[in-house]
Amino acid sequence: MVAAGVAALGAGAKAAVIGPAIGPCCYEVGDEVATLFDADLTVERKLDLWSAAERALRGAGVETVERVDLCTRCHPELFFSHRRSGRARGVQGVLGAVA
Ligand SMILES: [Zn+2]
Q1: pTM of the entire predicted model
Q2: Which residues surround ligand 1, an ion (CB under 5 A)?
Q3: Domain spans in the chain, listed from the N-terminal domain onward
């Protein structure tokens, strides 16, 4: 999905920001999920989704990647979290463009 999104942007320098998401502190996964990612991204059953996203972006040719590194589960005062609240939660999203 990341590679397809980057390819859709066409030629030219690209930059990305990895926004708030569940962090490696809280994202416990089973083997069926962990095996979808490089082995070093899962430590003690916790997946580092932030680094997985950065790796995918850089692999797709994005030169500049900034990371917020804020865990949505650890910061209930700032974000919704499916892992914390279950289905009864809100959503957050960001749209951006540089002209
Ligand atoms: Zn956390």
Answers
A1: 0.80
A2: 23, 25-26, 71, 73-74
A3: 13-74
